Amino acid sequence: MYTGIQHLHSGLAYLALIALVVVIVLMLVGSLSGKPFSEKDRKIAMIAFILAHIQLLVGLVLYFISPVGLDLLKGGGAMSDPAARLTALEHPLINIVAIVIITIGYSRAKKLQDSRAKFRSIYMLYAVGLVLILSRIPWSSWLG
């Protein structure tokens, strides 16, 4: 079960990252072109929003069933080892913050009236979330 969830988390990561990049580009183009924010734009942003949240939920499940997740923090040695600290603390914490920022961007855009402001809310906060996510991906194990 652990290996299956690990593969799901890794596969969903590709989808979520691609969706975030696509949404950021589309919302930036929409903002710069001055076009009205449409229902299609909202749905595209929502797809990335949903994928990011599913990825977070799968990651949290993986963290709590993982043989290394919480155990690294309990042992106390995780803070002195950069790889263990990334796995046990930085990756989960920064990704939770990133998803909160993405959520704020999407929720704020729903409340705004001006199309340009909606586009900007989404592309700016999704971009901040994406940068945070990319900063804490365990690249050595993900690409390795």
Topology readout:
Layout: H1 2-33, H2 39-65, H3 69-75, H4 82-111, H5 115-135, H6 139-142
Helix pairs in contact: 1-2, 1-5, 2-4, 3-4, 4-5
The gist of it:
The chain crosses the membrane at residues 12-32, 44-65, 92-109, 121-139. By secondary structure, the protein is mainly alpha-helical. Helices cover 84% and strands 0% of the residues.
The general outline is elongated
* Assembly form of the protein: single chain
How many alpha or pi helices? 6
Structural class: mainly alpha
Task: State the domain count.
Answer: 1
Detail the poorly predicted runs.
none
Encode the helix/strand succession as letters.
Answer: HHHHHH
Estimated share of beta-strand residues: under 5%
Terminal CA distance:
22 Å
How many beta-strand elements?
Answer: 0
Report the sheet with the most strands, covering strand number, pairing sense and barrel closure: none
Radius of gyration, taken over Cα atoms and rounded to an integer in Å: 17 Å
Organism: Algoriphagus faecimaris
Protein name: 50S ribosomal protein L27
Keywords: Membrane, Transmembrane, Transmembrane helix
Transmembrane segments: 12-32, 44-65, 92-109, 121-139
